[in-house]
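Why does residue order matter? Because the sequence determines the fold. Keep that principle in mind as you read this record.
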Amino acid sequence: MNSDSIRRSNIFETIVRASFAGVRWREVFAELMTELSISPDEVEAKIVEKREMGMSGLTPAELSMLDEYIGEWFNLVDVAGPCPIPLHELTNQIQPLVNSFYKDTFKISTPPKIVFCQSPAKLAIYMKVLLARKGDTAIYSATEFRTLAQQVVSDFTPDEQSEFLTPLENEFEQLNAEQGPQLKGKSLNYQLLEHVLQEFYAEIKNQTASFLGTDSADFFDQGLYHRFEPIHRRLSTIFDIDFYFTTPESNPHWRQLARMMSTMSAFNRETWGFWQGYFLVGAGFLLERMSERGSFFASSEKELRQWLSLFRLAPWFSFFENVCLVGMYPVELHLDEQLRLNNRTGAAITFSDGWRMWAFNGNRVPRRLVEAPETLTIEDINNADNVNIRRIMIEMYGASRYLEDSGSRMIHSDEYGELYQRVIPDDEPLTMVRVKNSTMESDGTFRHYFLRVPPNITTAKEAVAWTFAMESEEYSPEVET
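Structure:
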């Protein structure tokens, strides 16, 4: 399979998954579908095929019940607003469930302290504070904790920073006073994920045959995989956020901290989130809606009910020896038509502790880019580390203006126009042809304008011809327009 075929196959699967998530795929992917010769009928046929895969063990009525059940879970996660349950009451509901996991799975009898993380930023900070490392038993001082925490609110005003940091520092102070050296501890997430995604999942699949009378692997890995996409897309959009921290080498207790959550998403590595456990929905459906067909073993049913209960209360959990971090939903959320974080006029996502993030088309961007785009400079664009953000910046600045202001070089000129190119690190060169409008302006002048063309074009004539969907040899206008 060549690279074009691989790209078509990947895009095709992306479109199908997007359709299950509720994306208006016909409009969103129209250009790509035309470019790759993907017909709507082809996509529709694959959607029907995917909906039938792994579902032969269910009657049409039961299949409808499954979709309703998944819909109920989606309605649970498709919310943005204040938590309807007071935190002390939420703690009372979560604590016994968590205690059971610590006792049964981790063999730890001492109940962990429940700490709510209203935002991903709070999780990022506590990740660095709680993880014990060899030779590192000291607890951060209040000053060090503040220095660390300030890094996630660098885009905030002083008042906004205080609103976020003061309660966080007070909570940390209390935790430190309560637990002292025991505050730090080993992360239990890897052990938990190994247990749940391997041992427990295998148990559930093996026992599901009694419900369905068919291959349970197909039911979970094929039938549920796509049906779960709305929930997966929603939660991973909200919580798949990277954080970057600096690490002062002058302080030995900060050594090697940069490796935690520096170039990866914390939520995929250090949490157990509902978006990771799609099989729980399928097993929950069998347990709660299809009990007349069969039953799970008592131990499996107990653990399944515990996980379903926990995920009905909170979207994710992060387990340490002495502390259990519990995630919370945002209070405000803005998504684009592809269900990505996106807001051109304000924060794209806001959490109850005051932390928020600005994003365009699913890419986190500096606050200034949203609230003061007129201050964007050539240096800002050239210094952007992320290729997608740099492209957004160029779009906002204006591609032709960027080309003119950034010192791009003219690589060819002829009677049809002038071809300019700007080399951009880690991205394709920005290439544009400068042409003259054949229509005279009211003041008697002729306006010049830029048209973007593919970077492999080498002559101005070829560039102009490309804008008319023609080859250079075909393009020979008698009158330029």
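The chain has a mean pLDDT of 85.
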